[in-house]
Amino acid sequence: MTDSSSNDTDTHRLVAQRKEKLQAWRDQGHAFPNDFRPDALAGDLQRAHADDDADTLDAAGKEVAIAGRLLAKRVMGKLSFATLQDRSGRIQLFMQRDLLGEDAYKAFKQLDIGDIVGIKGPLSRTNKGELSVRASQWQLLTKSLRPLPEKWHGLSDTEARYRQRYVDLIMHPDSRAVFLARSAIVRGVRDFFEARGFLEVETPMLQAIPGGAAAKPFVTHYNALDHDFYLRVAPELYLKRLVVGGLEKVFELNRNFRNEGVSTRHNPEFTMLEFYQAYADYHVLMDEIEALFRELSAKVFEKHSGACNEQSVRFDAPFERLSMRDAVLKYNENIDAQAIDDKASLISAAEAAGVRGKDEWGHGKWLTELFEETVEHRLEQPTFVIDYPAEVSPLARRRDDNPDVTERFELFVAGREIANGFSELNDAEDQAERFRAQSEAKAAGDDEAMYFDADYVNALEYGLPPTAGAGIGIDRLVMLLTGRSAIRDVLLFPQLRPQGVPNE
Fold this sequence. Notes:
Layout: H1 3-27, H2 42-48, H3 54-60, E1 63-76, E2 79-86, E3 89-96, H4 97-100, H5 102-108, E4 116-125, E5 131-134, E6 137-142, H6 158-163, H7 165-171, H8 173-195, E7 199-200, E8 206-207, E9 219-222, E10 227-231, H9 236-244, E11 249-257, E12 269-278, H10 282-303, E13 320-323, H11 324-331, H12 337-341, H13 343-352, H14 363-374, E14 383-386, E15 398-399, E16 402-406, E17 408-413, E18 416-423, H15 428-443, H16 454-462, E19 467-473, H17 474-482
Parallel strand pairs: 3-5, 7-11, 13-14
Antiparallel strand pairs: 1-2, 1-4, 2-3, 4-5, 4-6, 8-10, 9-10, 11-12, 12-19, 14-17, 15-16, 17-18, 18-19
């Protein structure tokens, strides 16, 4: 018999035993009660009484009611110890026959690891100095039918942790800490923008025309209208419509969907922050993003240090700002300024670096591909790469002194793109021309090219004030601040291949 089949047999046996115990509780009318109300949390008690010795706790005689899951149990004749975990942390339970009574103590010994219980009693400290609840009464709230794993780690279990996140969260405090930190990061983002007068809004996720990013959308059919719709790839064009309407500072925190590959940095469903500000340019936005990152990192590291790995990234120093052209020159010593401005020389350098291009690519596209191939992964400290070619920036405003490039930036940290922003294109005629170029590229087979959005051009014709906007990938931001290398580690339920479906 293989180890796997042996483990399955053991699990079936344990589940059957637990179901027998549950039936006994049903017969007594005690199964799944909902009348226990905790008044304390394990973690709060640990912090509040960290300096209280046994005499102080005994003199206070503070009674508490706590509830949570049993993670460990040690039965020793007339007394037992157990570990209870709730959402805030863990605390020891001191279970004594003389205090509980014979029947209650005997029933407690029949509990299984994973059962959810309610406990009432005074706080005390054991001879070994462990803060404990000395139980005067207890109640089984939920019978756990499936045993918790004894070991839940290692590469062989990585996918199981993602598929059964509920077990991962039970067994791994560090995993729960990441998601507590994620919640704090999202809350911090909201606080930052609301304090600066931005209005949080919601825009459609189901769109007749996908726009705002160069990405392949998911397609669905809307039966009521008998028309294909798309899950949004970005909220950008709707948010800028709101600026046209007079909502001059807006932001949205919500989901985007892109029908692309899955990797350590990509999930087809992801959370994005986008914000837009009238009467601002891309320099203003870079300043705001620097301030946001400093504020978030300080708060997260202070309150959620357990979720954060040691990092060499510095957020307290000014972020470097390099044009894409200068970044390529800085990190490619074999390319000089004359060669980078000559298309034939640029193509030669890009192909030597491994870029495989297309005949229709212009100078700007070749430069961008060379940058992505040779520079991105080397940008360890926070760096704004600015002045992207107009050819790859269909929604960004051209620079007045050089119409071949745009007032656009991307922020890179630890070799990853974290943010993308630009001074917005508010020339309706220029925008229409760029949409036409994108439509031609789509007709030529580019699945990620943008559609022509006539209504958005119509909105621009009413007048979009000078505006700047940016997007920040929240999942990558959480990865950065918690030191995680895989996006699945910061998503509660990452996208996975359905079980039983073979790889193609």
